[in-house]
Amino acid sequence: LQIDALERAGCSRIFQDVASGAKAERKGLDEALAYLRPGDTLVVWKIDRLGRSLAHLVGVVEDLRSRGIGFRSLTDPGMDTTTASGALIFHIFGALAAFERELIRERTKAGLAVAAEGQLSPLPC
Questions:
Q1: Can you give the pLDDT at residue 73?
Q2: Are 117 and 124 in contact (CB under 8 A)?
Q3: What fold, for 2-116?
């Protein structure tokens, strides 16, 4: 299904990972990222096939953008950084990833402060 859709979309080279997208080591993705050149577009069947997390996804797409490479998801409408609206959507994703990182940082800081006071949890009982 995925490979057929990529072929119909005109992809000239298809890279595959046999492991879950949640795995840190992904040979197919690494090969694809090394293969791509400025002016190319990385096409995925679905956006969750690319990133392990929102932050990872945004990082990969930002790296592509900095190298002059576009990104497009076949099944996620608007996920095409070669268009103005797709680029806007990814800027919003980037802001959400930054927000998520800040929340994690704040929670960690609050938890450490509570632990330093000898309390079990910052949540009310």
A1: 92
A2: no
A3: Rossmann fold (3.40.50)
Residue ranges of the chain whose pLDDT lies below 50: none
How many helices and strands in the chain, by DSSP H and E? 4, 2
Q: What is the pLDDT of residue 55?
A: 81
pLDDT single digits (tens) 80-107 = 999 999 989 888 988 888 888 889 889 9
DSSP annotation of 26: -
Q: How far is CA 109 from the centre of its chain?
A: 26
Is residue 50 a contact partner of residue 60, using CB atoms and an 8 Å limit? yes
Burial class (CB in 10 A: 0-12, 13-18, 19+), 80: buried
Token code pair at residue 27: 């040979």
The ranges assigned to domains in the chain are: 2-116
CA distance 8 to 75: 13
